[in-house]
User: Which sequence fits this backbone?
C-alpha cells in the first residue's frame, strides 16, 4: 500500500466496512435477481455502496478498487436516473457479481498485507460497454447532444439578478481568482464565489461563463484563473476581504476599474425566467425534506452500536472465566467449612448472582447470528445452479439463531461443502426429477435451532438420497469398512461418507467431488466439539445434522478422579457410567481389556495407565467405567470415582506443554472450584486410541 | 472554536476525517451515519462546523443541509463530495454550504477548508 497514511486502525476499519458493504451488496443483488428486477431502493442501495467503496478506497489509494467502484456507480446512477426498460437482469447481475468478486479478492489481498494489484481494466471496460448498450437501446445516446442542450438551457439560472438595474452601484472591480492545485472541482469553487457574491451585489459577469455544464471550464480556471467583473458599493478593502475568504485560494488579482464594458451585462436578462422556476422547485424540495426530517427525528432512537476487537472480547471472556473460578474458590473455600457465617453467605450469594449474570452477558456479547453465514450460501446456490443447469431454491430457517463468534468461523466452510454436495450430488437433473414426479425446482433447506446448550444446524435436500449399495462398494474398495457389512445399520453405512478418502462421485466436478469434502466437514465440526450425522431416504433426500455447542469457552463436564488427579469429560459425549461386573470383563489375545455392554464389546482405557497416574484403585470392579461416544465410536474410560458434574471454563493447554509434545486425548484444561487443575479429555481422540 | 460534527454513512470516512481533524486540534463532538441523525445531532451538539457527506441512506447530505440551514441560518456546513458530484455540490452551495472538499482529499485540504470557513 502506497498510501500517505498507512494507519493500521484505518486499514482495519476500511477492510471491515468494505467487506460488510460487499456482503450487503451481494444480498441486494441476489434479492433483485430472485425478483428478476432491480427495484429503485435496491438500485439506490447498490449505488450508495459503490459510492462509499469508491470514496474509501480512493482515500486509501487503492485506485483499481476505486476505479471499478466508480464504473459500477456510473452504471447504477444511469439505472437510477433514467430507469431504462428491458434491462437484462441476468447479465447485469453477472456483471455486478464479477465486480463483487474482484472487490472481495482485493480485500483479501489487502487483509493479507499483499499489494492490491488486481487489474480491473477489462471488467471496467465491460461495465462501460454494458452501460453504453443500455443507453443505445434506450435511444438516449442519439438524443444526448440535443438533450444536453436542453439541460444547459434549463440550468441557466445561476446568475442572480433580482434587483432592478436602475440602481447602478458606483464601484467597478475586476478580479481574477486562482485556486490551489489539486483542490478539485474548480468550477464549483468558482460557483461558490459567485453564489456568495450575490449577498454583496447583483451586478457581475464572469469568465468562463459555463462553469457548471462545461467540464473544460475546469481547465480554463486552472490555467487562466477565474475572472469576475462586478459593480458594487463595497470598498476595495471589503471586496479584498470577501475574496480572501475563498477556500483553497492560491492567488487573487483584484483591481478597481473606471467603468464597465456595458455589452458584457446584456446576456443575463433572458435568464431571469428560468431562475424563478428553479427557486420554486428548490423551495418545494426543502419543504419535503423538512417534513421527512420531522418524521425521521422521531425514530432517531436507533440502537447505538460500536465495534470491538475480538481479541478484547476473548480477553474479557478469559477474565470472566477466571472470575467464575475465583468466585467458587472464595465461596466454597475449605476454610469456611463448619463456620456459621450468615453475613458472609449473604454476600457470597450476591457475588455468585452477579458473577453468573456477568458470565451470561459476556457470552451474549460474543454471540453472532448465523444470518450472514447462511446468506453466503445463497450466492453459492445461485452460481452452481447456473453452471449445472439446475433449478434449486434455498430455504433458510432460523437464521437468527446465535452462536459464538469463534464457532461461526469454523462452521462456514463445512456448511459450504454440505450445500455444494447437496446441490451437486443430491439434487437430480431437471429431467430426472420430472420422471420421478418431483417438482422440477429442487429445494435445499438450511435450518438452525437451539437445543439446550447446542445449536442444531440441518442441511436438507429433496434429491436422490444416498445410495447404500454404492457407499458400501466404495467403502470396500477403499478399505473403510470397520465392521462386517451385514452387521452395519443403515445409519452406520450412511455415516461412512464422513470418513477420510471417501467419494462416490465418479466424475470430479468443479464444485465438489474431490473426495475430501465430507471428512473436512467432520474435522471442522469436531474441532469445535460438535458432531455430524446423516440420514437419507432413497429418492426423498438427504439430511445432514450438525450439532454444535453454543460456545467453546464453557462446557458441561463430568469430573472424575484418578489417584490425586482430576479429569473432566464433556458431558455431551458421556453415554453412561457404571461399576462393571467381573464377568463382563474380557481380555483379547493381545491382552487388551474389553467389556461387554448390552452385547457390544468395547475397549477399556485405563486413565491411570494412559497418563501414568499413581492410584490405589487398579481393579476394574472397584472403580468406575464411563462409557463415552463420539462420532459413532464408543469406548470405556476407567477412573477411580466420579466427583460430579459442573460447568467448566475451557482453557487451552499452555504452549510450553503443547510444544513439548502432543499428549493424546487431551482437549484442554480447567480449574476446579477448589483451585485444582483438571484435564479435559477429548472423547473422540480417546476412542481412536487403541 | 473548533467543534465539529461529522456526518457520513461510511465508518471509514468518519474515522479518517476524525483522525485528520483531531490531529489538528479540532474537537469532534459527534458523528452521524445519515442525514436525519446528522440534523438531530446538530440540534443537540450545536457544533461550530459540520462535514457532510452527500450520498447517504435515509436522508441525503443535501437534504440534511437544507434542514440544518432552516434550523440555523448561520450554520457552517462543508460538503464532502466525490468527483462526478458537481451538480449536487452546486445545489448544496446554493442551499448554504460554505465550502466543500473532494474525495480523495488530503489532510491539509480538510484542515485548511475548515479553518478558513471557521475564520469567516
Assistant:
Amino acid at each position: 500500500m502506497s498510501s500517505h497514511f498507512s494507519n493500521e486502525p484505518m486499514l482495519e476499519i476500511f477492510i471491515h466496512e468494505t467487506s460488510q458493504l460487499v456482503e450487503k451488496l451481494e444480498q441486494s443483488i441476489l434479492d433483485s435477481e430472485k425478483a428478476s428486477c432491480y427495484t429503485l431502493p435496491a438500485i439506490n442501495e447498490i449505488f450508495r455502496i459503490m459510492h462509499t467503496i469508491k470514496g474509501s478506497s480512493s482515500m486509501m489509494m487503492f485506485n483499481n478498487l476505486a476505479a471499478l467502484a466508480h464504473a459500477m456507480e456510473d452504471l447504477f446512477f444511469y439505472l437510477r436516473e433514467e430507469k431504462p426498460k428491458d434491462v437484462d437482469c441476468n447479465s447485469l447481475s453477472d456483471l455486478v457479481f464479477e465486480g463483487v468478486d474482484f472487490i472481495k479478492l482485493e480485500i483479501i489481498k489487502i487483509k493479507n498485507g499483499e499489494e492490491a494489484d488486481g487489474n480491473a481494466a477489462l471488467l471496467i471496460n465491460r461495465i462501460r460497454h454494458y452501460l453504453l448498450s443500455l443507453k443505445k437501446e434506450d435511444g438516449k445516446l442519439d438524443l444526448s447532444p440535443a438533450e444536453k442542450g436542453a439541460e444547459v438551457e434549463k440550468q441557466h439560472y445561476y446568475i442572480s439578478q433580482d434587483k432592478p438595474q436602475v440602481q447602478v452601484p458606483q464601484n467597478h472591480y475586476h478580479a481574477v481568482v486562482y485556486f490551489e492545485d489539486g483542490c478539485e472541482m474548480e468550477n464549483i469553487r468558482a460557483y461558490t464565489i459567485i453564489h456568495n457574491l450575490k449577498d454583496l451585489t447583483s451586478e457581475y459577469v464572469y469568465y468562463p461563463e459555463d462553469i457548471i455544464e462545461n467540464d473544460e471550464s475546469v481547465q480554463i480556471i486552472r490555467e487562466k484563473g477565474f475572472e469576475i467583473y462586478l459593480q458594487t458599493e463595497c470598498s476595495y478593502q471589503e471586496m479584498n476581504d470577501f475574496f480572501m475568504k475563498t477556500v483553497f485560494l492560491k492567488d487573487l488579482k483584484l483591481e478597481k476599474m473606471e467603468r464597465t464594458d456595458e455589452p458584457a451585462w446584456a446576456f443575463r436578462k433572458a435568464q431571469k425566467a428560468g431562475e424563478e422556476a428553479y427557486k420554486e422547485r428548490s423551495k418545494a424540495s426543502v419543504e419535503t425534506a423538512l417534513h421527512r426530517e420531522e418524521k425521521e427525528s422521531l425514530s432517531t432512537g436507533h440502537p447505538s452500536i460500536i465495534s470491538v476487537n475480538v481479541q478484547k472480547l476473548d480477553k474479557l471472556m478469559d477474565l470472566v472465566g477466571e472470575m467464575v473460578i475465583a468466585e467458587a474458590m472464595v465461596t466454597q473455600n475449605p476454610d469456611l467449612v463448619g463456620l456459621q457465617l450468615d453475613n458472609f453467605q449473604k454476600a457470597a450469594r450476591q457475588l455468585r448472582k452477579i458473577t453468573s449474570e456477568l458470565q451470561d452477558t459476556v457470552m451474549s456479547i460474543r454471540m453472532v447470528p448465523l444470518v450472514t453465514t447462511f446468506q453466503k450460501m445463497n450466492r453459492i446456490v445461485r452460481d452452481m445452479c447456473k453452471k449445472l443447469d439446475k433449478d434449486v431454491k434455498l430455504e433458510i430457517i432460523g437464521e437468527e439463531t446465535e452462536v459464538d463468534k469463534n464457532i461461526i468461523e469454523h462452521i462456514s466452510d463445512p456448511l459450504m461443502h454440505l450445500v455444494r454436495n447437496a446441490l451437486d450430488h443430491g439434487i437430480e437433473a431437471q429431467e430426472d426429477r420430472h420422471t420421478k414426479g418431483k417438482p422440477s425446482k429442487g429445494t435445499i433447506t438450511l435450518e438452525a435451532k437451539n437445543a439446550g446448550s447446542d445449536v442444531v444446524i440441518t442441511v436438507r435436500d429433496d434429491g436422490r438420497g444416498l445410495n447404500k449399495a454404492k457407499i458400501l462398494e466404495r467403502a470396500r474398495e477403499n478399505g473403510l469398512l470397520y465392521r462386517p457389512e451385514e452387521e452395519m445399520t443403515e445409519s452406520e453405512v450412511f455415516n461412512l461418507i464422513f470418513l477420510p478418502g471417501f467419494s462416490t462421485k465418479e466424475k470430479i466436478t468443479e464444485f465438489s467431488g474431490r473426495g475430501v469434502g465430507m471428512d473436512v466437514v467432520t474435522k471442522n465440526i469436531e474441532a469445535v466439539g460438535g458432531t455430524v450425522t446423516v440420514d437419507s431416504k432413497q429418492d426423498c433426500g438427504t439430511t445432514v445434522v450438525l450439532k454444535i455447542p453454543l460456545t467453546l469457552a464453557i462446557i458441561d463436564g463430568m469430573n472424575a478422579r484418578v489417584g490425586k488427579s482430576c479429569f473432566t469429560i464433556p458431558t455431551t459425549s458421556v453415554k453412561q457410567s457404571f461399576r462393571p461386573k467381573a464377568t463382563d470383563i474380557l481380555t483379547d489375545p493381545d491382552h487388551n481389556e474389553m467389556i461387554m455392554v448390552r452385547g457390544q464389546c468395547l475397549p477399556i482405557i485405563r486413565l491411570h495407565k494412559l497418563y501414568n497416574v499413581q492410584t490405589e484403585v487398579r481393579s476394574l470392579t472397584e472403580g468406575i467405567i464411563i462409557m463415552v461416544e463420539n462420532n459413532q465410536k464408543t469406548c470405556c474410560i476407567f477412573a477411580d470415582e466420579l466427583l460430579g458434574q459442573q460447568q467448566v471454563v475451557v482453557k487451552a493447554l499452555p504452549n510450553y506443554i503443547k510444544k513439548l509434545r502432543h499428549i493424546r486425548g487431551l482437549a484442554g484444561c480447567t480449574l476446579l472450584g477448589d483451585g485444582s487443575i483438571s484435564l479435559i479429555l477429548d472423547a473422540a481422540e480417546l476412542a481412536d486410541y487403541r | 472554536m473548533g467543534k465539529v460534527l461529522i456526518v457520513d454513512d461510511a465508518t471509514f470516512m468518519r474515522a479518517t476525517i476524525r483522525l485528520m481533524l483531531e490531529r489538528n486540534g479540532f474537537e469532534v463532538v459527534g458523528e452521524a451515519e445519515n442525514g436525519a441523525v446528522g440534523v438531530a445531532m446538530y440540534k443537540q451538539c450545536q457544533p461550530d462546523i459540520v462535514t457532510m457527506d452527500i450520498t447517504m441512506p435515509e436522508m441525503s447530505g443535501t437534504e440534511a443541509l437544507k434542514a440544518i440551514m432552516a434550523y440555523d441560518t448561520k450554520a457552517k456546513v462543508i460538503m464532502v463530495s466525490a468527483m462526478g458530484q458537481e451538480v449536487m455540490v452546486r445545489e448544496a452551495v446554493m442551499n448554504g454550504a460554505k465550502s466543500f472538499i473532494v474525495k480523495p482529499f488530503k489532510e491539509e485540504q480538510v484542515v485548511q477548508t475548515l479553518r478558513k470557513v471557521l475564520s469567516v
